Amino acid sequence: MKHFGTDGIRCKADEFTEEYLRKIALGIAYLSDCRKVVIGRDPRVSGKRIEKTISKVLSENGVEVLLAGMIPTPCLAFLTALYRCDYGIMLSASHNPPEYNGIKLFASDGSKVSKATEQAVEDSIERGIMLLRYLKAPVSEIDGKEHYIKYLLDRIKPDLKGQKILLDTANGATSEIAKELFSRTGADVVAFNTETDGVNINCGCGATVPKFLLEKCQGRDYDIAFTYDGDGDRVMCVQDGKIFNGDHLMYVHCKDMMTRGELVENTMVGTVMSNLGTEKACKAAGINLVRTAVGDKCVYREMVKKGYNVGGEESGHMIFSDYLKTGDGILASLLTACLNTKKRVSEADDIVECPSVSDCIICDKEAIAKFNASEEIRKFLSSVPSEYRIVVRPSGTEPKIRILVEAEQTEKASAFASEIKKYIEERVL
Predict the structure, then answer these.
(1) pLDDT score of 379
(2) 264 vs 201: CA distance, rounded Å
(3) What is the pLDDT of residues 80-89, one digit of tens each?
(4) d(CA 395, CA 6)
(5) d(Cα 338, Cα 182) in Å, to the nearest integer?
(6) CA distance 196 to 171
(7) What are phi and psi for residue 427, nearest 5 degrees?
(8) What are phi and psi of 280, to 5 degrees?
(9) Percent helix, strand, coil in the chain (nearest 5)?
(10) What strands, in cross-sheet order, belong to the sheet with 356-362?
(11) Residue spans of the chain under pLDDT 70
């Protein structure tokens, strides 16, 4: 698609011009069942401007708008269902730097919208619809944070009295709500990176830079620590000098759920990015690992298809569908903190990862189009020796081609990643 990537529409904030935002808003309003939406945003500086334009256009075209203010993405998804909205609109560029922003769409049940819905909005953007309805609908403000917190507390009933928990909220949308939630479980909470002025969201911190929290944990007395991305749909964990990504956290939850007969079909849904070591550990534990394409919406679609109840990505998106229908870093961290009171995450996790090397090719859309169309590159990548596991794909959120290589030795993985990078660069740049 031209506009939608792995997770909504995402670009530098100045590319969201008034004209472009109007086209997007009209595309959403043009959906046949769109009569009521709720809009949330992370703290990025551009968020209020984007919110103002989209809400105005929707209202002028007969769509009722609820403004939820600065909230995490999973909270927006929850409110979409709670307030019986037809769609939820989250304004966030997730883990991207402050100069980016994005638009994520949610269906009425709080899950990511279907590919067909994305295509319908995309088609409307390209057609340039001018005006739909002449009946103006109201715009009102809501405060849904308390509803979300109360739901998690009532559903999970966490008792974390005496637990010392550290949080890195990435100067993002979880800066207020995460500390409040954990404090109300009885835990002793210390939070870092809690500014919400939007100018330094994800800068040197958060789930994409977990080493920040790892360093903060050194020399401190704590039980467990969590680091979120800018909009709170990702989380990673730090404990005993180690970083635990989404795959590791899902794995320890799946093992625990199996003992209680709660893991549907004894299956965990991951992606092509899940390490080979994760696959081996799952097999040894009796867990069936199912892989999908990258993106938590791809994971969730597979979960719905087969009825699975745990899935996610190594990047920190985790979906526990018995509770909510989208990646939720706050929910995942709360469940993990509760599990940790029974057995420490560092003791429950026995995954031994195969060495992997990640690299990327910074490029433009034209180069990505060449990559996607090249039969020569496709044949080269399909003839990789069996001693390697590779994933080479255009990013759905940034202008780059990502390269991942796994092998028995880091040196071999690094050398082959360099070979792949050079081969592709010679053909697309």
Answers:
(1) 95
(2) 37
(3) 999 999 999 9
(4) 8
(5) 11
(6) 6
(7) -110, -10
(8) -65, -40
(9) 40, 25, 40
(10) 356-362, 400-406, 389-394
(11) 131-134
The domain boundary, picked from 348, 365, 385, lies at 348
CA distances (Å), 189 to each of 19, 238, 364, in order?
44, 15, 43
Burial class (CB in 10 A: 0-12, 13-18, 19+), 70: buried
- Name the 3-class secondary structure at 391: strand
Identify the domain containing residue 373 by its residue range.
Answer: 356-428
Name the catalytic one among 46, 94, 321, 333: 94
Sequence-distant (≥ 6) Cβ neighbours of residue 189 within 8 angstroms: 165, 166, 167, 179, 182, 183
Quick one: 282 and 394 in the same domain? no
Strands 4-5 and 8-12: antiparallel
What pTM did the predictor assign? 0.90
Task: Look up residue 235 and give its two tokens.
Answer: 């989380």
Number of helices (H) and strands (E), helices first, in the chain?
15, 19
Q: What are the distances in angstroms from CA 174 to CA 230, 369, 398? A: 7, 36, 23
Q: What is the CATH number of the domain that holds 397?
A: 3.30.310.50
The DSSP-derived string for 126-190 is HHT-----SS---EEE---HHHHHHHHHHHH----TT-EEEEE-TTSTTTTHHHHHHHTTT-EEE
212 in helix, strand or coil?
helix
Structural domain ending residue among the three candidates 348, 365, 386: 348
Helix (H, G, I), strand (E, B) or coil at 95: coil
Q: 234 is written with which tokens?
A: 């990702």
The answer to whether residue 94 is catalytic is yes
**pLDDT recorded at residue 132:** 62
Give the whole-angstrom CA distance, residue 321 versus residue 344.
23
